[in-house]
Amino acid sequence: MVEVVRKSIKSLRLVVYRATGKVRIAVPLRVSEAEVRQVVTARLDWIRQQQDKFALQVKPAPLEYVTGEVHPFQGRHYHLNVIEQIGTPRVILHEDHLEMRVRPNSELAQRAAVLAAWYRAQLQAQIPALIAHWQPIMGVQVAEWRIKHMKTKWGTCNTRVHRIWLNLELAIFPLACLEYVVVHEMTHLLEPSHNARFKALMDQFMPLWREYKKELNKGVRM
Predict the structure, then answer these.
(1) What is the pLDDT of residues 131-159, one digit of tens each?
(2) How many CB atoms lie within 10 A of CB 182?
(3) Which of 75, 128, 164, 200 could form a disulfide with 185 if both were Cys (CB 3.0 to 4.6 A apart)?
(4) To 5 degrees, how large is the angle CA 131–CA 183–CA 15?
(5) How far apart are CA 76 and CA 172, in angstroms?
(6) HSE of 157, CA atoms in CB hemisphere, 13 A
(7) Alpha helix segments (H runs only) across 100-190
(8) C-alpha span between 162 and 151 (Å, rounded)
(9) pLDDT category, 80, cuts 50, 70, 90?
(10) What predicted TM-score, i.e. pTM, was given to this entire model?
(11) Domain 120-218: which CATH number of 3.30.2010.10, 3.90.550.10, 2.60.120.280, 3.20.20.10
């Protein structure tokens, strides 16, 4: 079963979801159904290889947000220490653990929201300095940036309004990976597509970008 989504894009984008093995193809408005079937048929072997690979991977246990559970932040893993108390929920980073203060009898979804809000706050503190550093180097200006949880992308760029979106999950990876995605999306302000010129620009700005990309692709997501 292949989900076909038509969008105002320039080229087809085929994705196999890691968690479910579901196949989704984003298709330009002008592409016919016959062309879509042709592309999917041509990529069937690759699709099945991806599905088989994902099926063999060990699925992480569902998170419970309890004391002793391990959670990642900037490439390191921290044990969680949950403290129930009256007051504003918050997370405190220690050398070897994350302290999560939550209200008594808080539910799993509430605890998850507390940690997600903390992750978001860390990114919000780091991203402005990265953009400010790279703007004069690259000769571009970012008008606006935002954070959201994305299933299949680490970032996106609206070249028309110079707005970039960054994935909330970047908080769990090393800071260099966050910087790579920032530079990647800013490079789209110079070259919208992922063509040879785009890659040459990335090589110029960040010679090790392929290593950071590999780190993101193999990493465990939230």
Answers:
(1) 999 999 999 999 999 999 998 899 999 99
(2) 24
(3) 164
(4) 130
(5) 8
(6) 20
(7) 108-138, 175-187
(8) 22
(9) very high
(10) 0.75
(11) 3.30.2010.10
